[in-house]
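DM from R.C. (forwarded with permission)

"hey, sorry to bug you on a friday — could you get me a structure for this? deadline for the figure draft is monday and I only need the backbone to look sensible"
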Amino acid sequence: MKRVLVSTVLGSVAVLGMITAAGAASVTSTPTGGKIELWVTPGATQGNGTVVITGAIGDYGKSTGKRNENGTPDPNGNYGIVELQKGAIEVDLANIGKAINNAAPIVNSTTTCSFVVTATAPATLLNGTGAYKGISGTVELTETFAAILPRISTGKDKGQCNETNSATPVAQWGSVTGSGTVSYR
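My reply, with the result:
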């Protein structure tokens, strides 16, 4: 039984390798435009998230922190850069930033100290480099953030949820996803 299983697995790996090699040979290195899906796992600090783009763009890399219109790092900026393996793409984040700042979080402050906030808005892709030179398009982004807040440990509010801006969540999760269409000039 063990030999049959090992033989089956090795045979599957060999077939998968041949399919992958054949597929890779037929893929062009220059994107042609079309529909894309964007997947981001945010970093622990602003930027430094893991990015995967599928569809008309098949690439991966990291996000940067916010930047101003001139490309200078700025925590209040409305732009970000997606640094991929084949080039970089600038993303106008003004709409999603405004949407998430105006979204009403769902908070359970009476029993679980949990909250979630979600917002959706369009983001414009522009100023590509490398394989993405001349890119344009819009991606509808959805940003979701969930956390468990700590409880206040002393004083008159002891035991209540700490909902202050300085409270560090006990646990947190975030994601950014999107889909849209890109083209090249």
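R.C.: lifesaver. Residues 7 and 152 are 58 Å apart (CA to CA).
me: no worries. Residues 32-184 form one domain.
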